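G., the chain you wanted modeled:
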Amino acid sequence: MTTIKVARGNPTAEELAAVLVVLHARAASAPATDAEPGALDVWADKTRTTKPWPGPYAWRTTYWAR
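Predicted structure as tokens:
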């Protein structure tokens, strides 16, 4: 269950109910995002941070822990 907090204003009960109905409908229509087992997240993909060839100072990092 998620808590919704009104940050500004003073909505009526009807306005809050309308917002909740819209949020509930959008959540119900959203596709399931079940990831495949073993699938890597884009941020965890090591090829994202590696260069295709070593740079001019690559020798400095040769023995760094990875």
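Helices lie at 13-29.

Shout if anything looks off.
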